[in-house]
Amino acid sequence: MINIPKIILEAIFVQAQNENPLECCGLLAGKGNQITHHYQIKNSDQSPTTYLMDPREQFWAFGNMRHNHLELLAIYHSHTHTPAYPSATDIRLAFYPQSHYLIITLMNGNPQMRAFKILNETVVEESFNVV
Predict the structure, then answer these.
(1) According to the model, what pLDDT value does residue 109 have?
(2) What is the residue extent of each domain of the chain?
(3) Which of 2, 32, 96, 112 has the fewest CB atoms within 10 Å, counting from its CB?
């Protein structure tokens, strides 16, 4: 289970709403199970149904994590008109089995988020704490 600071969760929700109708994306890092760093990353796909993190921004984020001795704890993105559950594409492209995958849905007007672990195309919902 990961701990997400309320201020970071609120920032992710604002990003998802601001980038709607396109999907938003980003990375969350920290130590152990505590998220401390939030990296908003541009969706290079500029799509309402898919995301591809901008390579330069993603490279910078991973360099910053290394510099600050942080671990990648979660990868997040939004679904603008579908539930907060991994799509077939999300499952196929889940290349970080140690990471949580956070999906924000905007389909009911209020952002809602769910967390998952994805390993060998098996999806398991995970709990998270807002702190």
Answers:
(1) 83
(2) 2-130
(3) 32
